[in-house]
Design goal:
Blueprint: H1 17-29, H2 33-40, H3 44-51, H4 59-69, H5 73-79, H6 97-121, E1 124-139, E2 145-157
Antiparallel strand pairs: 1-2
Length: 161
């Protein structure tokens, strides 16, 4: 069985109420985000974002979460009824080492990404709203594991006015 991600207790007071409910049930059932995502028909990053209060759920998501995690549907409906409060759970720069490394990628390559994107698309930004992402594990011929993170965002050109 895979090891599972659980709720970091130092974040609990900064997360919405559903985080504790969802993470407790996930731990009890010993489910990975990938397993839960398959049951919801969603991407595992999107499901993890729901747990952290960073993504919106549909009524179908609530039904599936209640079923898969064994949580009373009415409890989840109440906890997941509002809109997400994105980006409020972390300090900047991040202190958690893995999250800091992602931040460091942007620090080191952000202007290079910007230059290349501007050359390919013109003046604008990549949306984080019309957006999808996925995480994959790749093993090379030497047996070393590599994290592959794909980000796909709609290009939004700046308007001339």
């Amino acid at each position: 069985m895979s090891r599972i991600s659980t709720l970091d207790s130092t974040l609990a007071d900064r997360l919405p109420v559903q985080a504790l409910t969802l993470f407790e049930a996930k731990a009890q059932k010993q489910l990975t985000f990938e397993q839960i995502a398959k049951e919801l028909g969603r991407n595992e990053v999107a499901v993890a974002a729901i747990f952290y209060g960073q993504a919106q759920t549909s009524p179908e998501d609530v039904d599936a979460l209640a079923r898969v995690l064994g949580i009373e549907k009415s409890k989840l409906e109440g906890q997941l009824a509002g809109y997400p409060f994105r980006g409020q759970t972390m300090d900047m720069p991040p202190k958690e080492p893995l999250i800091y490394r992602l931040y460091e990628v942007v620090q080191n390559y952000g202007y290079a990404y910007k230059a290349i994107l501007n050359e390919k698309f013109g003046d604008g930004i990549m949306s984080a709203i019309s957006f999808s992402t996925k995480v994959e594990k790749e093993t090379d011929e030497d047996g070393s594991n590599w994290a592959v993170i794909t980000m796909r965002g709609k290009w939004l050109p700046f308007s001339r006015f």
